[in-house]
Amino acid sequence: MNDSTPPPAETTPDTTDASADIRLLGRLIGDVLREQSGDDLFDLVERVRRSAVDARRDGETPIAELTDMLAAADLDDQVHLIRAFGWLSLLANTAEDIHSERRRRYHQDRGAGARDGTLEATFDRLVGSDLDSDAIAHAVDEVHVTPVITAHPTEVRRQTVLGVVERVAALLERRARAGGSPTELAEIDDALRLAVLTLWDTAMLRLSKLRVRDEINEALRYYRSSIFATVPRLQRDLETLAADRLGHRLDNATPITMGSWIGGDRDGNPFVTAPVLRLAVESQANLAYEHHLVELHRLSRELSMSLRLITPTPALMTLADRSADDSPFRADEPYRRAMRGMHARMWAMAATVLDEVPGPLPHAELEPYGSADELVADLHVVTESLRSHGAGLLADERVDPLRRSVEIFGTHLCGLDMRQNSAIHEEVVAELFRVGGVAADYASLDESERVELLTAELSNARPLVSPHASYSDLTAGEIAVLREAASAHQRFGARTIPHYVISMAQSVSDVLEVAVLLKEVGLVSVDVDSGAITSALDIAPLFETIADLRAADTTLTALLEHPRYAQIVESRDGWHEVMIGYSDSNKDGGYVTSQWELYRAQRALVAAAERAGIRIRLFHGRGGTVGRGGGPAYQAILAQPPGSVHGELRITEQGEMVAAKYAQATSARRNLETLLSATLEASCLDGERLGADGDRYRETMGEIAQLAYETYRGLIEGTAVGRPGEFVDFFRQITPIAEIASLNVGSRPASRKKSDRIEDLRAIPWVFGWSQARLNIPGWFGAGSAFDAFATTDERRALLVEMHDRWPFFKAMLNNMGMVLAKTDLDIGRRYADVLVTDDGLRDAVFGAIADEHARTRRWHAELTGSEVPLVDNPALARSIRNRFPYLDPLHVMQVELLRRYRDGDRDELVERGIQLTLNTIATGLRNSG
């Protein structure tokens, strides 16, 4: 796969785009393809590639030409062709990522100044503001950011493949630094050829669907590849900046911690059971202990300083003397003896909670540490001693990173959240009340009657669950999960499972039901003597539909006015967490309405918390794609309502974005630093600065959101196109939604329940399906009609332009919409409709509405941003699209034809494999597809 286009002039790394690396990788794929499959297939791939590239260069979509070209290709050749373009897309992504990091370093090395999203730029901004240094120091001490890794079925790449891709990335980095040495370049290219050959002979698809245990293991892999190294170093850099710029000693041991849902999220996933929760908790703890033990053992070998040359502190000598290491070979090496003793105590601590302790065996049996804090204290003794005799560099570079790691990751690694749907809680509580003689039919009670019963249960200490009663599998399973969570708290501490998230929370009773269930296992406790109620974890309602977001502040106010629940919040140091859902709100109301209701709900929730005198932590359930809350994190955080961040940020990391952000240390650093920097800025500064115009802008946005909602609902309900109730048929035919369920990418079913209703479909496959057909309506539909209906005068049109220029929220919304519009291709979407939608009338009506709305939205986006180019503010993504999209065109052509054959009854194994491969490769090429 070659390209005759001459490469751009290459004078510095700054002017070199990723094209040269992509051409090199394409040539290597072509070489392997020719060697493995022959000249005929190579020539077919080359003709297809050239057709796509030439057409895109001329501004055309080569659907008709590619369709004719591929019509005569047999299935086996099509599968090889799909694989060729799939591997090229994946490697092109890698080349782009490497180039992005190369450019960043180039500018940094040449003194271009700190870039937005870095801690240095944030401190420049904060110090240059009207805030005094004490206020900034307080914010730095208070900041706490937690990315929460979740398992969702859009991570289409196998871990085996990711390992090879990491090798390719390292080789491309090395190649850029080779300095033109022919010998070294030849050596690197040979290694790249081996990596490409390995990929070509590696199956893209898994043989079986992922299990939850596989998802747990895949997530843990990122700690070894990047997180263990990155988070402590980022904390050190924050400490250094605070000292240098503020003269302040950082009093914040955990500005960044990690979270997870994998193994604790039961909502719609029947495979998350009590044994799975136990596995998740123990796997995380095992990795934390392994990391600490390996580092302690390594330090016991490295810190070889001799008493004949240095004088350690008395405290260090005490640690050495307590180590029970009487080897004459280490008699004058107190640091080695001290570290061996610390290793032995940590090993003994692990042995009390783990069946099998990882890492090297200890030299002796010593008393276990009582907590990780004791190890932190001992490591502090080591660093202070090293500094006392001029070995501060060793303390800073070798011992302090481990001390920080123990503080950050503890013995639990990360906080594992539990999540379940409110409907399940209702069913379980109803059974417990019925069996326990509390209420015969809890489900039939109104809200006030439910609250009254639940309050009574939260006012006494007696349990509901009887060991002598029989319960349904559902209830028994839920109670077993909660008991396992309580056990995890006892073994690994309260940081192990810090939150319980309630999906589809709509009322006070939805939250009190969880409190009652937690009381059954001791995670919520009622003091027998005083009656005081406390909770060992946060209970977090998740508001995710448009209606629930609109009522969120009312629900929270009612909760906080509930006397027993107010005590629970007080027991959590006056903090209350609320999760807001980007995915389901988008599916429910469309992009514009979802964005506005999320913004409005945050303002209202903050106000409700202030009225109640408590502090609120907002947990953002964002996905990878714009339709699920994705987009540049820095701009997204700064576009939040003032006061809504308040030093605390929790945010989900989902799907293929987890690998994109955490597979390598450089990308992990960039992502985590961006989250931390933006959270600090949003907490300290009023990013809006709207003054008296704020109310006017928000009133305008409310009107636009309602107009967009009516347009969006008119489409999906079918009323706007004269086909009521038939839109779901259109969606299921034009997208490969049914086939997506067969792709072995995740453990969770595509729907919460067996149903053809869009409401019951998970938001992830909803967005994933539209992206495969390149229509992407979750990211833009309804906007054009809303602007049309609102801007009926010149003054109103000017107001919208003004809002784009002045309001970060409105600008971020339009910028993210531009990203989706740039990836939308109506010509490709029309091919899906023409071939796959069997009802001509339905196809013409719905696709016609989509095309008309797309034209309106593109026109308005151009007018409000001042550019016909949707990505005018993101030239890097524009270049990426130019590089990548020609290779997607043939994949779409083949996917449509394979879907047609499959739906016509062709169950050839190659047809099924081809469909699955195109799902994989298109998602890879689009990157943030779900």
UniProtKB/TrEMBL annotation:
Reactions performed catalytically: oxaloacetate + phosphate = phosphoenolpyruvate + hydrogencarbonate
Keyword Lyase: yes
Pfam families from the UniProt entry: PEPcase
Cofactor(s) this protein cannot do without: Mg(2+)
Any GO CC annotation of this UniProt entry: cytosol
Record key words, sorted: Carbon dioxide fixation, Lyase, Magnesium, Pyruvate
Active site feature: 152, 587
Annotated GO biological process: carbon fixation; oxaloacetate metabolic process; tricarboxylic acid cycle
EC category name: lyase
Keyword flag Magnesium: yes
HAMAP family: PEPcase_type1
Family from the record: Belongs to the PEPCase type 1 family.
NCBIfam families noted in UniProt: PRK00009.1 (NF000584)
Assembly information from the UniProt record: Homotetramer.
Protein name as catalogued: Phosphoenolpyruvate carboxylase
Species this protein is from: Ilumatobacter fluminis
Gene: ppc
